[in-house]
Amino acid sequence: FIPKYYNHKVYIHNLSNFDGIFLLRILALFSKEHNLKLNIIKRDSSIISIALEIIVKNKSYTLEFRDSLLLLPSSLRKWAKSFGVSDKGIFPYNFVNDSSINLEYVGPIPNYSLFTDVSLEEYNKYSRIFIHNNWSLRKETIKYCLQDCVSLHQILFKFNKLIFSMFNVTINKYPTLPS
Fold it and tell me: Which residue stretches of the chain have pLDDT < 70?
């Protein structure tokens, strides 16, 4: 909510099915506390965009959140490979989804079976980082989330250049691939 970001679009991969749940709760609280307008555009069960209207000195600004999965209907991992950008890395989803796991876990790297869509070779390469160090769920989650953002930015940048070169339009004008 820094003025230089007013009227910008923020892309979140899988906004409709995962991250949007967390974002909506926070934005609803924030908009209620600060008397802001929240406008949600949906199609069926998919959130196309969430716009937050901000009024500063009687002038209206928006901050719009969009689901990049509606532009790029596949995993970020596949898109990173296709566009030749930084991979988002690997993460033990099945480990963190276990309710008995302490979110402050520090210790040996989780077992290979707790990682999804990861080859044994990728897991072994990742594991070597922790031969002499403990694995920290907090640190690795933060690194994974940051890399996820970097990958999405690089993918969207290249995708926008491609669409502009082919059709002379920017992706920011259209929230979905069909549009």
Answer: none
